[in-house]
Amino acid sequence: MDHHCIWINNCVGHENYKIFFIFVLYAVTACFYAMILIIGSAMYSVPVDEHSSNDSSRTSIIICGIILCPLTLALTVLFGWHIYLILQNKTTIEYHEGVRAMWLAEKGGNLYHHPYHLGVYENLISVLGPNIFCWLCPVSTNTGNGLRFRTSHDIPLSTPSITAMVSNRSNNAASDEQ
């Protein structure tokens, strides 16, 4: 589990983190779109005469805009925070644990390295899935089982093991001698 989200009234973790992230992305996009519509409506709803009834509609548009501003700001900050977490391949809990681990490492004269940071592209793949064209689709494309995750210390799965490479070289050298 990463955290409990009051927006969706559910815990966010390995199985639904991508869906949560896409939800926040679409919410931010919708807020900015609504903001553009509200600004356009407020600018172009100029009353024809002074005693027009457009004043009440213009007032309601302005009130909606005032309410929408902090919501847009909060969602944008939340979205930016989760972009940072994805690029670092951290959960919210791992971030807070990492702050303490970094402090303890610096206190001991060591450097702290987050073990699950695989590089920006691999971090994106680990959350959004291997198919770039499906990154914005709100479907779960998890890699792994949610219990074991690749670390920066692991040998990549596509790289042959060193013992296999050494044994192949010795076999090739033996066949060349004959």
Automatic annotation (TrEMBL):
Q: Where in the cell is it found?
A: Membrane
Homology family:
Belongs to the DHHC palmitoyltransferase family.
Name of the protein described by the UniProt record: S-acyltransferase
Please state every residue range assigned to the domain named Palmitoyltransferase DHHC: 1-96
Q: Which UniProt keywords apply?
A: Acyltransferase, Membrane, Transferase, Transmembrane, Transmembrane helix
- GO cellular component terms attached to this protein's record: membrane
The record's catalysed reaction(s) read: L-cysteinyl-[protein] + hexadecanoyl-CoA = S-hexadecanoyl-L-cysteinyl-[protein] + CoA
